[in-house]
Amino acid sequence: GNSVTQMEGPVTLSEEAFLTINCTYTATGYPSLFWYVQYPGEGLQLLLKATKADDKGSNKGFEATYRKETTSFHLEKGSVQVSDSAVYFCALSELTGTASKLTFGTGTRLQVTL
Amino acid sequence: DGGITQSPKYLFRKEGQNVTLSCEQNLNHDAMYWYRQDPGQGLRLIYYSQIVNDFQKGDIAEGYSVSREKKESFPLTVTSAQKNPTAFYLCASSWGLAIKGNEQFFGPGTRLTVL
User: Residue A97: its chain B contacts at CB < 8 A?
Assistant: First the structure.
């Protein structure tokens, strides 16, 4: 079956540091890949996505590139802010009829300090 | 304001009682989903529904039941058969389209505590 593996957290960085959160996946087909962010006590928000190999998703300074050869979708940001502190989830989706089933990684908590 | 609402935000129940969690969306989405989130784990799919009056089991459906009588509503019942019901429950919805990258939109969640 499908699975997603993320680096364990917490990741603690100083403001303006470079961020990388690793994500690798196992899938039988050609899934779409997503990064979602969860702020404390809230639901998930879509951060970015990519639907095919070599696609780059980007949003709010975050980027991730769909690498089929390494089955990876690492999240990066050049300069983090305190407001980026949250839990980040990597996910893949497989189509099931007209629904889109998501398989999530375990999440990586990011803490950014001044 | 379009979105997904879940109520209540916090819910407490005694062991052995069934409890129903509400999920309503006004995004006109056909597909809806229920996930469970436990500390240190990712989200796991409980049930999903592609269309009104139809739903399928996800990866951890045992001890849960759902209904989909209206497009905008997808309530989840946590029954007494669920061995470890204390968790954070998230509802989501998406367009009913068989296309890649069809994203899901999430509600704010309900934290259920069984005493």
Answer: 50, 98
Helix (H), strand (E) at residue B109: none
d(CA B25, CA B10): 19
> Judging by beta carbons within 10 Å of its beta carbon (0-12, 13-18, 19+), is residue A68 exposed, middle or buried?
exposed
Nearest CB partner across the interface for A101, out of B45, B100, B105 = B45
**What is the three-class DSSP state of A84?**
helix
Handedness of CA A44, B88, A92, B75 (dihedral sign): negative
pLDDT along chain A (114 residues), means of 10: 90 97 91 94 93 95 96 97 96 78 93 96
Instruction: Give the nearest chain B residue to A42 (CA atoms).
Output: B108
Say which amino acid occupies B16. G
Check if B58 contacts A (Cβ < 8 Å). Answer: yes
Q: What is the SS3 assignment for A83? A: helix
Residue of A nearest to B29 (CA): A99
